[in-house]
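Lab notebook, design round three. We kept the backbone fixed and only want residue identities now. Task for the bench partner: fill in a sequence for the structure below.
Input structure tokens:
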């Protein structure tokens, strides 16, 4: 088996996903840059290569079954296996000012689109990449979540979290799925965890937030490179475990 570790990051053409790819690349990983937009994907690959990262583009729309299947075939052809999968691609859905999604006026099409990307997309990609991950000695899966998906924090009146009736529940759903996968993988060498990047200033947040994309990528990079025997089925941020 090649000594070079192989990673795939979805939604890696910009923001936190790009920095996760860059961070893994700086650690010596060969990194697949998963993204829908061809021009942005190739621009990201070019920037990563210019920085010394062994990067390759992976056309990938996480909401499209055929696109995901084609991506798995491409990774197999180019790399032969996968050591780390970071499910980073995600959308917020249309919001009112103040990042509000009123549950009493929620457009069900918005909810469907958010769940299709943030939850079903993770299932599509994870299951398609599992045969490649099983070829690794130390496979790692990271689901990029958000602390707004923490039911404990949402229910705490002392914590200010906007009402986000599509986005926040999609991350709660993703967290629950992460636990189900961890239970299924029990007794294997596959570790799967959820990562909260914090409030990061990217186009996703309208460039509002105190954290840089590099800071937001740190927890996902750590979880993607966990040693054998590390935690699984947990939810982490920089300061430690996030309550469910």
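Proposed sequence:
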């Amino acid at each position: 088996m090649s000594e070079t570790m192989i990673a795939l990051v979805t939604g890696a053409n910009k923001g936190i996903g790009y920095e996760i790819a860059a961070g893994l690349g700086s650690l010596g990983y060969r990194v697949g840059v998963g993204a829908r937009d061809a021009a942005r994907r190739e621009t990201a690959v070019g920037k990563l290569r210019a920085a010394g990262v062994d990067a390759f583009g992976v056309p990938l729309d996480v909401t499209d079954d055929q696109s995901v299947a084609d991506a798995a075939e491409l990774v197999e052809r180019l790399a032969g296996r996968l050591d780390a999968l970071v499910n980073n691609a995600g959308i917020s859905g249309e919001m009112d000012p103040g990042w509000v999604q009123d549950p009493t006026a929620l457009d069900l099409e918005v909810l469907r689109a958010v769940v299709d990307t943030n939850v079903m997309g993770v299932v599509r990609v994870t299951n398609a990449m599992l045969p490649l991950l099983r070829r690794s000695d130390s496979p790692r899966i990271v689901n990029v979540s958000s602390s707004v998906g923490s039911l404990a924090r949402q229910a705490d009146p002392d914590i200010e979290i906007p009402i986000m009736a599509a986005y926040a529940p999609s991350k709660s759903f993703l967290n629950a799925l992460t636990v189900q996968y961890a239970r299924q993988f029990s007794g294997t060498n596959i570790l799967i965890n959820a990562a909260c990047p914090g409030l990061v200033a990217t186009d996703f947040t309208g460039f509002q937030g105190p954290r840089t994309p590099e800071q937001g990528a740190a927890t996902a990079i750590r979880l993607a490179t966990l040693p054998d025997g590390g935690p699984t089925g947990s939810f982490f941020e920089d300061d430690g475990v996030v309550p469910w």
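Keep this in mind before ordering anything: The first helix runs from residue 15 to 26.
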